[in-house]
Amino acid sequence: MVRFVVRRLLQMVLVVVVLSMLVFAWLRSLPGGPVSAILGERQTEERRAALEAALGLDQPLPVQYLKFLDRAVHGNFGVSTKVLPGEDALQIFLDRLPATIELSALALLIAVALGIPLGYMAARRRGSAADTGAVIFSLVGVAVPVFFTAFLLKYFFAVEWNLLPVSGRQSTGLDATRVTGMFVLDGILTREWDAAWDALKHLILPAVALATIPFAVIFRITRASVLDVLDEDYVRTAEAKGLTTKVIRARHVLRNAMLPVVTTIGLQVGGLLAGAVLTETVFSYQGVGQALATAFRDKDYAVLQVLILAAAVIYVLVNLLVDIAYAVIDPRIRTR
Amino acid sequence: MSPRRTAATLAAAVLTAATLASCAESQRDDNSEGGGDDGTFVFGAAGAPEMFDPFYATDGETFRVTRQMFQGLVGIEPGTAEVVPELATEWTPNDDGTEWTFELRDDVTFHDGTDFNAEAVCANFERMFDQNEAGQTAGEYWGYVMGSFKNDAANSLYQGCEATDEFEATISISGPTSGFPTMLSLASLAMQSPTAMEEGDANGIAAEGEGFSFPDYADNPVGTGPFTFGEYDEANGTITLERNDDYWGDPAQVSELVFRVIPDESTRRQELEAGSINGYDLPNPVDWAGLEDAGNSVEIRDAFNILYLGLNPEANPQLKDLKVRQALYHALNREQLVQTQLPEGATEATQFMPDTVSGYNTDLQPYEYDPEEAKRLLKEAGAEGMELTFAYPTEVSRPYMPDPQKIYEALRTDLEAVGIKVNVKTASWNGGYLDNVTAGRYDAYILGWTGDYDSPFNFIGTFFGNLKENDFGTRAYPWGQQLSEDLKSADAIVDDEQRAAAFEDINQQIMEDYLPGLPISHSPPALVVGPGVDGVVPSPLTAEEFASVSVEGGQ
Predict the structure, then answer these.
(1) Among A97, A99, B161, B547, which residue carries the largest CB count within 10 Å?
(2) What is the pTM for the complete model shown?
(3) A284 to chain B: which residues are within 8 Å by CB?
């Protein structure tokens, strides 16, 4: 197990280095650049040249990359030109990360807490009206774009019914203590219940919007997987042995059906970051996703590099965790 | 889970949600957003400020915030583009317009208690003038208006500052220009506390990696204005300013001014509808009527911008023929464009500057829409069926072009109607469009400009003054050199009236003899405030001062 984990971690380092080259080359091959974003309508060749020289963008690409690599090895990923000019790009990522973790965690919680039980129930009652209804709902969930879901949620829950805030992470003027940067958790840790409640209210709509797609996917996989397992011989054998339904479901059906579901959940974690770009933008939620969108629009190279590489690292790590979870759920995998 | 238990769980979940919702409502109701005696004004900003030291800043979102905290020697009369006294009470030039003596207010202190006097003024100018290499690139506005910095003093408009008395400072410039002292109203050239700048190492900017790192001062700025810097809560996207109780002028009406960063325009509108912000900038023109109907007030600014169709004779030599350029202009039905695609209050342009700028020529008439004349001119020029590579930017909305694609479509239809074959090109604003325009890759493109201050040179000088580098390719015309020189000599006339007359002549020449591009329209940008908000004076320069704003009910 330890060897397995170490090998995977080494693979990860290689993946990140190769990816850093690709990201570097890709960003600089895109039309436009930070210089355009900074100068706007005030461009002249003269001013462009001066700014390019100041930002080191006039040097050959390999030189730029080697300089970047040299700095990165020393923990310096460059400073932002547009998202928060002058701020260390890695610091921007670290500052924004808690917000996105909080949002993604809640979204994943919603997706799992609803997706697995509903998927299981739908499978148990295959063909029933409830099953059909749930399947259709999940199809809609996958098909509708996040920004549309977000727009509807905001329109009804925030504007029309005034139940929840439209956007942001915390009400203006609320004086809350910050500990981890996850506002709900901070409120709980400091026992500032008002602040925790306020932050949770700001989280609900974006989390629900973000949860729609993972929910639909988890629901469908659970349903399909449970259906498969129910048809397996060992379930029939267990029934023949006279085991109680409760035992059969817990030990045989659920446990075996969970393998593909766990993989799916892992993959969805990666997808959550992509979803967060849209969700955070629509809800003006100051997280990594919003920073990524801004950095891409304004070609903030340093911030883009850090965010894309960090996303890759997270993705690889999550996959590793999924594999470990596999091994825990299914002992056969450990022996391989 | 048995069906019964599932039902129970679901019921509990629904109940919890309902309770949550009702609590949410009551919470919201007693969550007064203000903290002080006279309430808080919460404004939705489209972007985050880049920093708080306006000297190194270039963008409107930063200036919107710094303008509430900093002041210049000269200011702008609210609601106009006119220059008025601010920290200086009056100014007089010597005969040749190269030495300007400013009489200063004697009752002003910076937020940190430092006295404002002639020495502070000179300390500011010397600070702006004496920049290291990184600072010279980042201090873009100084470079733009003054030409260069201390290491290239000979080419700088600024030549020195002397404290001739405690409250009298004399600034020397290399030659007269229409821009001085008007340019001192620029947010970037505002007066900052010399003590705070020294303590915070204000000039300690450095190139680092692919950006600039800024000193502590950039986050802790100290000015003289009606608001002081409170806090930038980056995690929540809010900037809080507090009322300066020792302000030398009329104190601010609200005790707190909060800017909330909400990049998405429809979210800004929804926040206003939900009552959680008191106003926001640049509402979409299609929403104006709806916003008004809902009890908000849409404050329309006077247009201080120009939208034009840029033409590049270097990319398409057929454009070198004046008849071709005139034909294109006659082909465009700008009246219809203005009425259907641009916000209420937009007007057809008759020249490359709006009518609020001195030097505007009132005798010029809009080019007539005459497709037959266009066809005739094209035939005469032997350019029938000519091809035109015509570009517009995507993913952008500017005050002078709310929807570039729609404007492009309208123009293209008109051009095709007279037999011109249009090849479309698009690129996103920061994703190649501006680069391509600068590099001269398009025959025709739509672009525009919002003025920095009331100066004709800030419009036509920017467009055509630099012969070597302008997007209109005037170097390819026989008259390009002449136009560039005429602009510079007009700009150097000391007498206001004579200077204005000279610019009026140039405007006429540009439109009748040269026509380097086709000016299209001026669009008034708007901002919107919710019910109960009073005292917003819309500024053509989008330089609103929020000290005069009050919020009913102390939200």
Answers:
(1) A99
(2) 0.88
(3) 237, 260-264, 267
